[in-house]
Amino acid sequence: MTSRGAGTAFSRKNYRLSTEPEKSKVTGIVNSRLLNDYLHRVFTNADGNQPAAAYRKHLTFQNLQEHLDRLLAEENGSEDSRDQAAEGRLGPSTVVLDHTSGFEGLLLVDDDLLGVIGHSNFGSIRATTCVYKGKWIYEVLISSQGLMQIGWCTLNCRFNQEEGVGDTPDSYAYDGNRVRKWNVTTTNYGKSWAAGDIVSCLIDLDEGTIAFCLNGISLGTAFDNITRGAGMAYFPAISLSFKESVAFNFGSRPLRYPLLEGYRPLQDPPVADLVKARKLLGYLKNVIHIGIDVTEGKLVEKDTSMWQLQGEPTVLITLAHIFNYLSPLMCKVYLVEDVLMTFLLSILERGGAVEAHPLIQQLLDLMWLLMEEYEVHECLKQLLMSLLRAYRFSPIIPDLGLQIHYLRLTIAVLKHEKSRKYLLSNVLFDVLRSVVFFYIKSPLRVEEAGLQELIPTTWWPNRFTKEGKESKEVKEESAEERLRRRAYERGCQRLKKRIEVVEGLQVQILKLLLNNKDRGGGEASRYIFLNKFRKFLQENASNRGNLTVLCPPEYMVCFLHRLIAALRFFWDGHKAKTPDALSSEEAYVPPQLFYNGKVDYFDLQRLGGLLSHLKKTLKDDLAAKANVLIDPAELQAVTMDDLDEDEESATSTAQSQRPSTALAIGGALARPGWLSSPTLGRANRFLSTAAVSLMNPRRPLGTLEKIKVRTLSVEQRTEEDIEGSHGNEGLLLGRPPEELDQPITENSLLEVLDGIVMMYNLSVHQQLGKMVGVSDDVNEYAMALKDTEEKISRCPKRRRDIHEELVKSQKVFSEKLNHLSRRLAWINVTIYSKEKMQDIYWLLRVCIRTIEHGDRTGSLFAFMPEFYLSVAMNSYSALKNYFSPVNSMEELPGYEETLMRLAAILAKHFADSRIVGTDIRDSLMQALASYVCYPHSLRAVERIPEEQRISMMKNLLAPYEQRPWAQTNWILVRLWRGCGFGYRYTRLPHLLKTKPEDASLPSLQKPCPSTLLQRHMADLLRSDRDLAPSFLNSVLNQLNWAFSEFIGMIQEIQQAAERLERNFVDSRQLKVCATCFDLSVSLLRVLEMTVTLAPEIFLDWTRPSSELLLRRLAQVSSFSGVCYVTAERNLFDRVVNLRLPGLESVDHYPILVAVTGILVRLLVDTDVQG
Asked: In terms of Cα–Cα distance, which of 1125, 1127, 1113 is closest to 1161?
């Protein structure tokens, strides 16, 4: 408040007291005796006792301030203790990282000078304060689990990019990545650490020892007899490699784990303020606990959980006096975490739903009523920072109780509307990395996480094929194996139920943030969230090379699933109120969002190229189809030079506007980072295309009034710009005639859906593929264990030495499998569960519907961002490859129809002229090539409409020049494989004895030819007299090139092998050589396919091109088959016999059978025709 301690006069708040006539209706200021009793009960002495009534001073609101001053001054001898605490320590009392001179290498340091990220090979930094006597401790919060050395060093230690803390004399370090300790030399020590762990670093300069703790558990003494004496003082220090990050706690916040006896934090706690805050909090608890019964004239005990202020002036003024002293203290991070957060958590400890504890809402009301705004803001910011830090760095226990505890308090705080809106507007995405609240970290040490108790019995598949994949043949399961599997599955279900509790709380947080009914006091929460969410997406989309800015992909995965759950809750809630709207099962993003400028897609590529180019070339289509006029300023000619200049100016502007933080290289630059610091200032002027309607709502086509759009930044958008009003369609501005005039859902939910699709594209798919590695490890160890057990059974009894070694190996493999199977259970529940699979499947269907609706708009389809097609392809790939065998895609509802619709999209758009990006075109071609390798998806291609099938085959038969012909040829080969001469093999005969790297690769699938698509190809080649020669000439040209390149390369390889000096052929050259050979074989197979399906192209002399094509075919066949492959002791033979790694596929068989197939087919058909 502006004037503290001025009796009952408060400058900012006015309190109206009851008049005498009103006292019968409401509780007013009580009589003098009752007030005196009340104040003495509330403001007790330090020992909690009250003096006898005869000896205590009469209290009123006029002398309460004096009484409070005296109570708060009691037993406040902190000044002496503070002086004593400084003994044995040198440096500033506030301990931070020394970013001015105490560093080596490039390091990014947080605003508070406590968090650091390595930005060079092996950077080092120390603190500003050192110790020379006594016992000291500090904590390090591990944000990434990579290479770091944490410990102590002296001022004389000199580090460089190769040597850090622990690599020089008088420096000592613990490395949890390699599980070692370092002091010039290194030995094994401690346990491995993981992201989210806390390392405590202890030094005892009286005994000369250094020790470390991991998550509060001692790792034992690491070093003894460390150097001490005159001039020897030790600084906290760290060395860390590129991208690794930590946050230090020297004592500015309460240490997470209790202090060991005799040890002190490097930074003294604010003892005087702590004593004062705890006393004031005690008085606040008394106010809540004690009620005034005016009618009876006595004090009564009240139920604290249901306490409400109810406008009682006596209580209100008493609280005002308490907050007069408490408010400034609640701006300090140590007191917020140690006093306020502990008190609020204690309220929720009684159990029950968060709604059952309205006291927290009442306390937040009091804070906003009795504290200055800047005090409330700082207090709430520090409270959320403390909650997020506590949630992130809490150890995992079997019931996840700690995580649940902190999430419940976060929900309770966010349920308060005014607090929620302030935190959303200024803290959750600006200061905090609030996505951390939606992450459930995976335990690397399953023992400490309690998974052994939760899943006491482990199990893993043990029926494998030779390629290492789980056998699909149903074999009899032994009784013991069945019992183990069922016990393991029960343990997984127990784990799933506990994790679902945490996930449910995380979804509750998002439901609060997506609330659009809390319009009291300004904009609803949802619209604040939308703007912050869009900036979050921009940050992750526009800084792909800056790893410190990006949200870690493991966080993105969890955030995506929680956001989908919250979105579908509101979507279906709207459907219940508006029956005409679509349900979430029918959700899609309407095409007008991609071109009306209401949603910012930053610099993300559109299907048709750059947005500026599309606005110029398609402006007439926009006006005619969507009734939208682009603002003339948007249509200025933009050359590539202008584009570069704009980007440079935007970058320089952004850098000039960013807040300066410490860069440990002598300068000051902004440091985003995933610790607790502010994010970078964001600026992306060129493609900031959020727009607003300036005219009347769109009328039916006919008498057109064009809608003009102008650019708005994300921050400028209002609820009306998003939802629309008074005929303005908001985000749905510019609906094309192909789109039905039917409500979909609330416009704001469409933007959230669009953001979810973008999130999947940014990093979620990548992370889903990464976590499959744990399942692969289980398979490898299970195979190794099975192999070892077979060897034990075959081991002769007389060879005890071998038997003992095999038993040791068996034990190692079993222990590793026990660990991995429990960890896999966690990953399957959090990432690959059936519910998560259904989320990804729902996202796939959303993308398919969005692409289908966009496709109907004709030329405006070019405005769609490329990532919609990418997510459609990648999400299908994830469902097929990552979620099995735990969950099967075939069990999903509508699976067959979804496969067919995706097949139709791939078949139509791989050669769509509206799509200009080479990368996305290649991706579509590769996806179609993979699609035709598997029987199930190939059947889906055959079920698409006949017109689309014929169009696809016609595009595949287009001339190969000036397009990625290798993938096209691969698709045709897969359609033929299984029908050609000697072409029914899965793997080449000479490779059957070797193990493939990955048996799930498309190229290693069993042949599944499509006679239907072959028939379409034959009809097209027969009916179109121009298509056949152009197609075949291009195939023959490419074959001539590929085989010539192959011959040239094997000549070079042979020459290198014949030299007397030792030569190593470049592996890349071998790979290119093998690729050219494979291309030659596949091109020959396409020729065989053509000769078989439509022989008249070569043999019907009424066709003008037949003789020329036959002559060319004969020349190429003899050149590739007879001359170079069949001759005795030829060049081809010699290279094949070298058996070089990388040339395994190069052999006589594949090329000879392909040429033979062509020749036999020509002979047979010539005889028939003759």
From this structure: 1113
By the 8 A CB rule, do 837 and 883 touch? yes
> How far, rounded to the nearest angstrom, does the alpha carbon of residue 930 sit from its chain's CA centroid?
27
Tell me what pLDDT residue 497 has. 92
- Asked whether 938 and 1005 are in contact (CB, 8 A), the reply is no
What are the tokens at 71?
Answer: 């109570």
Instruction: State the helix-helix crossing angle for 965-976 and 946-956, rounded to 10 degrees.
Output: 120
The tokens of 228 are what? Answer: 């001490």
Which letter, b or e, does each residue of 58-94 get, where b requires 16 or more Cβ atoms within 10 Å of its Cβ?
Answer: ebebeebbebbeebbeeeeebeeeeeebeebbebeee
For 932-958, what is each residue's pLDDT tens digit? 888 889 999 999 999 999 999 999 888
700/222 Cα distance (integer angstroms):
79
Q: Which uninterrupted H or E stretch holds 273?
A: helix 271-289
Domain boundaries, the chain: 36-44+61-72+271-427, 89-265, 438-468+482-637+706-737+747-944, 1011-1167
Closest CA to 439 of 842, 767, 874: 767
Distance separating alpha carbons of residues 441 and 716, to the nearest angstrom: 36
What is the per-residue pLDDT for 1159? 86
Cβ 861 vs Cβ 837: under 8 Å: no
| DSSP per-residue letters across 221-248 | EEEES---STT--BEEEEEEETT-EEEE
Beta bridge partners of 898: none
Strand residue runs (E) in 679-795: 690-693, 707-712
How far apart (Å, rounded) are the C-alpha atoms in residues 124 and 117?
10
Query: What's 674's DSSP letter?
Result: S
**Paired tokens of 1146:** 């190069």
Q: Which residues contact 771 (CB under 8 A, 6 or more apart)?
A: 827, 831, 832, 882
Q: Which residues contact residue 969 at a Cβ distance below 8 angstroms, ignoring those fewer than 6 apart?
A: 960, 1035, 1038, 1079, 1082, 1083, 1086
Residue type, 302: K
Which DSSP string do the residues of 504-573 spell out, in sequence order?
HHHHHHHHHHT--S--TTSS-HHHHHHHHHHHHHHHHHH-TT-TTTSPPHHHHHHHHHHHHHHHHHHHHH
Tell me 1126's DSSP state. Answer: I
User: In the 3-class helix/strand/coil scheme, how is 289-356 assigned residue by residue?
Assistant: HEEEECCCCEEEECCHHHCCCCCCHHHHHHHHHHHHHHHHHCCCHHHHHHHHHHHHHHHHCCCCCHHH
Provide the pLDDT for residue 689: 23
DSSP summary character for residue 163: -
Residues 6+ apart with CB under 8 A from 1097: 1021, 1022, 1028, 1029, 1032, 1090, 1103, 1105, 1106, 1109
What is the Cα–Cα distance from 1141 to 396, expressed in whole angstroms? 47
Q: What would the two tokens of residue 683 be?
A: 């600026």
Phi and psi angles of residue 107, each rounded to the nearest 5 degrees, phi first: -135, 140
| Angular region, 597: left φ>0, alpha ψ -120 to 50, beta rest | left
Please state, in angstroms and rounded to a whole number, the distance separating the CA atoms of residues 265 and 131.
11
Domain spanning 89-265: which superfamily? SPRY domain (2.60.120.920)
Kind of pairing, strands 135-142 and 245-249?
A: antiparallel
Q: What is the distance between the alpha carbons of residues 426 and 448, in angstroms, rounded to a whole number?
A: 37
241 strand-pairing partners: 122
Residue at 373: amino acid letter: E
Under a CB-based contact definition with an 8 Å cutoff, are residues 424 and 513 in contact? yes
Q: Give pLDDT < 50 ranges for the chain.
A: 1-27, 54, 78-85, 464-474, 637-705, 710-711, 1170
SS3 629: strand
What pLDDT score was predicted for residue 993? 55
- Please choose, from the candidates 396, 392, 418, the residue with its C-alpha nearest in 3D space to the C-alpha of residue 406: 392
**What six digits make up the tokens of 680?**
């970078």
